[in-house]
Design goal:
Elements lengths: L1 H15 L5 H11 L12 H8 L20 H4 L14 H8 L4 E4 L4 E4 L3 E5 L5 E6 L10 H29 L6 E5 L7 H4 L5 E7 L4 H16 L3 E7 L6 H6 L6 E5 L5 E6 L2 H13 L1
Parallel strand pairs: 5-7, 6-7
Antiparallel strand pairs: 1-2, 2-3, 3-4, 6-8, 8-9
Helix pairs in contact: 1-2
Length: about 290
Amino acid sequence: MNKNTNLIERALSMRFSGQSPLLLICLGVLISLPARGADGNGEPDSQKSSSRSGPGLQGEVPAPSASAPKPSSADSKPAKTDAATLVGKGAGEVESTLGKPTGRLQTTQGALWLYADWRIQFDHQNLVLKVERDQPLRLAKLDPQFVAAAEAADKAAVARAAADDAARIKANAPKIEKIRVVSRGGQQVDLPSLLTEGKITIVDFYAEWCGPCRKLSPVLEQLAKDDADVVLLKIDIVDLNTPVTHQFGIESIPNVRVFNRSKAQVGDSTYDASEVAKRIALAKRS
């Protein structure tokens, strides 16, 4: 650029000093030419300065590369684990591949490891026997008829169990004597201990020589046999002048008394079978 400038200045000075017009023509040719570098290779100065400048020069910003490497799709996504390849492998290799299981069970075949997507079955040598993909369970809607039938079966089973329990209790319960005879030679008796707990007890004071007693006895026995809540207790007084007759103030026989389930006497003593039946009815309500 300095040479061109010098030529222009010389041409102008020669024009005004009366020099030849040929110089003016040369001047126009020089002005029309594009600016070139001073060296003979024809490289632009900016290009030369760029080639001369090194990485250590100040103010230089390197141009970004247009061919920057991009991560491949294989590198950006983790490889998908194929658990089926673990068949025959040991527990350590399974854990290093799939991580720690969410659950562990023991089956007849061996240990069973549970993962979110896999079920790993080991054999007894702790080697993977099979790999199964874990499938979520879906519960179907229950049929109302099936539910009703199941509830009916449950109720029937409960009823059978209750009946079996009742039968077992009844079989194991002490057997109650419907008719008992106490003969102690006319001695006093502990009557409350002789009364049957939870039952209505007919107490018949009698003697073997008493004709009316022998007639009444079968009727009383039948009352006890016909009614599950009634038992008969016969006490032999021997005669009318014994300790037991004085104990209960007995002056004549038959002498029949009725006691309720709480062992309390109901009404007065009697010798009439119909009155005995009435007292039994009162005892059931008391």
